Amino acid sequence: MARRRLGGVWAQFCPVKRSRQLLQVEATPHGLRCFSWGLVCGRQGLKPVGQAVFMAGNLLGALAWGLLSFWFGRNSMLSWCCLQVALANTSAIFAPNFLVYCGLRFLNAFGLAGIILTSTTLMVEWTTTRRRAVTMTILGCTYCTGQMVLGGLAFALRDWRALHLATSTPFFAIFLISLWLPESARWLIITGKPERALQELKKVARINGHKEAKKALTIEVLMSSMEEEVASAKARQSLLDLFRVPVLRWRSCCLLVVNFSHMISYYGLVFDLQNLGRDIFLLQVLFGAVDFLGRAASNVLLRFFGRRVVLASAQALGGLSILANVLVPPDWQGLRVAFAVLGKGCLGVCLTCFSVYKSELFPTSLRMTADGFLQSAGRLGAVVGPLIMTARQALPLLPPLTYGVILIVSSFVLPFLPETRGLPLPDTIQDLENQRSAAAGGTWREAVITESTWF
After folding, report:
1. What is the mean pLDDT of the segment spanning 150-154?
2. All domains of the chain, ordered by start, with CATH?
3. Pick from 396, 392, 410, 240: which is nearest to 312 by CA?
4. pTM score, two decimals?
């Protein structure tokens, strides 16, 4: 047995029997990274460290950006996060050692969490009730498209530095575009900036071709339509409010369990790609394609069956798919990939539905705070998921059983949450209290602030 430098993988191997595999592995996008920094077999423990650092950045970023976006605005934080990701990802190319590289990856993950949070909230708050599901579905499909493109880029650009540069460049362009995007009018009004909110609404009305709305929108109309919301927002609110108010406490705890289970199973499947087949690039593209189909179908499912039914059913089916893989012999790679792909598709439906549902369960003043808290819980699951995989050697059945069972069990908490299909976004806690009676009576209507942003 001999020890050699191995790109992206540390192993002890026989040089005669595995020489071909060596040449193949050294051609992966991670090969030059390990060769440059001397990551030999004795330092193979650094591989999960790099993954854990990235996930830790996601976890802390989700919590931090939820609070920062409420203090400084959604769009300004989106612009900053795009610039941070672009600079951190590009700088990683020139990292002199593994420690600096991990630090830059942490900053990259920290910014990515903010992009996900702020972009989702902006789209939700600028979209009417009728178009909200399709808007979030489109957003989810773009994520899956990125997964497929990443697989193709990794196959074409075998040098990891070239891959970093290719994935960093779009963020510079997105940063410039984000400077033109309008700030959330809901956030501007509840933070005492009605004049700027009026400017943003007229800007959106002009883009959408609603000339009559530009004339009808005045400060008096805005303040009268959002009078309760402004009064409610004057009270100082924090993360603790999610647990002080009974209706928010129950929703927060339920969604925390649901999102935690999603991320444990999702990242457990993603990081287990190499055990499903030899061509990891093809599997990455295949997972992205199935995820795309699942998310694209979410809009139709949400329209006809509502949020709770779709989310609970997708979780249960995804969990059963993962458990079914336990019964498949290792030699039946085709069937194993089929069950894994089905589970990944169900998780795609879960994530799209969850992004719509969680935004409809919290008031505007606490929406980003709740979103950041839930995302942090999810990122904690993303850290735990791959760690469970390390028990595979001692307990081979533990990882798939954990991923499958936790999805199925968490689906049973969803029937205790209210259905929000067809209801406008709540702006105050009182709106949450009135949702059930309003849904039964069918008396809710969109306020002028959301009607003017008709998609």
Report:
1. 84
2. 2-32 (no CATH), 45-181+235-436 (1.20.1250.20), 183-234 (no CATH)
3. 410
4. 0.67
